[in-house]
Structures are given as structure tokens and as C-alpha cells.
Amino acid sequence: MSDNVEAIPTIEQRRTEKINEVKAALQKLAHPRFEKLTNRGKMEKMMQTEIELLQKSPPAKLENHLVTCNYAFYKSIIDEIETMGNASAVCMNFKRERVLISVDIITNEPHVWIKVVNRSAKTILIEYRDGKRSGDIIEQIKQHQYVSRRFNKPLIRVIFKNGILREMAEKLTRHGIHVVGELVEKEDPNLIGKWNEDMIEKLNEDDPSWKEEEEESPRSAPIPAYPAPTVPTLNLDISAVMLLVSNLCEPGGANFMFKEEMINKHAACERMKPAKAEVLKRMEGHKLIMSKMAFERVSEIVSTVGGAKEKERFAELVKAIERIPDPVDEAVGDVAKLNSVKDITPYTKRVFSCALITKTRTITANASFLEHAKQKSIYFKTIVIKPRPLTEQKEAFAQPL
Fold first, then answer.
1. Could you count the other beta carbons within 10 Å of the beta carbon of residue 186?
2. Which of 382, 384, 355, 351 is nearest to 275 (CA)?
3. End residue of a domain, out of 39, 54, 83
4. Tens-digit pLDDT profile for residues 354-363
5. pTM value?
6. Cα(2)–Cα(252) distance, integer angstroms
7. Do 393 and 353 share a structural domain?
8. Which domain of life is it from (predicted)?
């Protein structure tokens, strides 16, 4: 055997290494920064149990235990607590009626329940597909949300250490869950063959079982009947059209020092990370629609503020946009619940009402509206982009870089 071939650790060496890893984590947990952590003793006890199991496991069973050992999960919790710095409790149990859950990490300021998921995006998807309730992350988080409503409604955050299918993350986000982790596209080689179109369609559907009637919550206005799209469709916000036609997003268009400070900030962002290519990629293979009122408004903006090339791009873009008639009501569905928010314009209400009516996702840079909605636990299907103003007319008064 060549001297360059690295020796494979024996099972006993792996046992010793794993025990030392758990002991090191226990030592970290004993640090003063963790001393005020409620329920720390429970976690220490569970990790001590892991050490004992590793020590006592006969060689025949040790291989399996090295794989199924909970140490990686405990280590992830410790690492997260160490990073965030404001954790108040760990591994806490909560119960509502017959539903019992365990919350991995809790913070009080702000009030957040955190779940840490170590499983791979592939494993999470398979468990969801096969209906394994004990491993189905959607069902687990649904239970967290159900129980949380009896404990001052904390924000629920789920940290996916090894990624999550984009459609699963978006479903959780629509129902008020804060998702942290890499979003994995369904076309990823590791996920090929692990999903089907019915599953993706189900993930994209609204699930009424998530919602609980609240006596004081504003009522949503009825959503007019509209045929479901037969091809992939995206709803454009005014901000999306502005980005698609702006000179700022064209080659060299951001290489100016403008007189307006706000435009300079957008230009700096554009130089650092061009925005248009990603939007065009997301639009590939999709039909484009707009609220009729929003379309008329952006037409006015381009006509007034746009330069010659920006107007040409707009004229070409509109050939691909279907205008959707607006309903009689200014706002429908969950959008109507936001009528009391003064900062929301009629155009914004029309844009997102259009999305609800047509059951489509909206490309938007309207972070303010989404934040207002989030504060009321209302979430829309969106592709969030960066805002880009029209700049062609302003180039004449700008200094080239």
C-alpha cells in the first residue's frame, strides 16, 4: 500500500473522536455566556446521555449510533446561541390541548421561537413527499404556529442548516414563518426525481388549515372569480417595469455621478450587483400581466420622465404584458385588510389585488408595503427586487465616472 494513502479511522477511533467532540461542546455550554440560559441543564443532561451511549455501545451497534447520534443537532443549537447572543432559553416544551412541541431556542427581545433543522434539503423533501408526519417539516412548523398562539404569538424562525427547497420556504414564509437558509431550486441535481408537479402545485396553494379565526382581525373583501393561469404567469409591479426599462440597468448606465444623492445610491448598488439579469432569468418562460390601473400609471411615468431609449424599451416590453381589468373594489382579499394603512397607494392595492385575483406571484421592489403586510401577519407570493429609477434624462446633467 502506498505511503500516501491516508489510513481510514477504525470504529474505535471514531468512537473516541465523537466522544471528545461532545465533551468539547459540553465545555462550551459551561461558559459564562450560557449561564443565564433557561433549561441549560436539560441540554447538558441530554448531551451527557449521548456520551454514555457512545461509551457503552457494542461495536456491532456503534456504527449506527455514530450516524444517528444527536450531537450534530445539539452543536448546531450551541453555535446559533453563540452567534445570536440574546437567547434566553433552550429546548423548552410547550403544549396546547393535545399538541406538544419542543422549541430549540427562545429569545425574549424580540420574542422569537427558533427551530434548527440539520437535515438536507433532499431529506426534508422526501419526508414531505412520503407523508412522514414525524419528519414532515411543514406539519412540524404548523404545530409550532398553532401552539404559539397561546403564548403571546412569538415570531417563528426556522434555520435550515443544509438548505430548503425554494417552494417549501416560500410556503412557510407566506404563513408568517421567518425562514433562514439557502434556497435550493427544484432543478438541483440532488432533488431530481424527488418531487412531482402535483407536489409543487400543492406547495404553491394556500392552506386554510394554517389560519385561525381572529375576532378582531379585519375582514378580507371577496376575491372575484378569475380563471386560473394555464401557463406560468408573473404579475409586474410598477417598480418591476421601471427596472426593466431603466438606463441605469444597461451596460455603462450606472457609471455616472448624478446630481441626486438617492440615484447615486441606486447606481452604486447597480455597479456592485446588476439587477436586471436576475429578473430576466426569473421571467423566462412566463406570461406577464399587470393591473390595468398600474399599467396606465407606469405608462405616464415613462412618458414624462423616461428618455428616448427607455421609451423604446417600454414600447417593446408592453407587447408582452397582458392588462388585467381591475375589480370594482380598490382592494380585495388580504389587501383589503391593509386599507387602514395610510402609506399604501391605490396603485399598490391594485397591483396586489391583481395578484390575488389571478393567483400569481408579483415581481416588486415595494419593501414598504410588504413590511406593513408582515406586521399584520399577511404574506404575498413575491419575487423581491431592488428599485431602479429612470435615469436617461438625468445623464445629461451627470458626471461620467
1. 18
2. 384
3. 83
4. 999 999 999 9
5. 0.53
6. 57
7. yes
8. Eukaryota
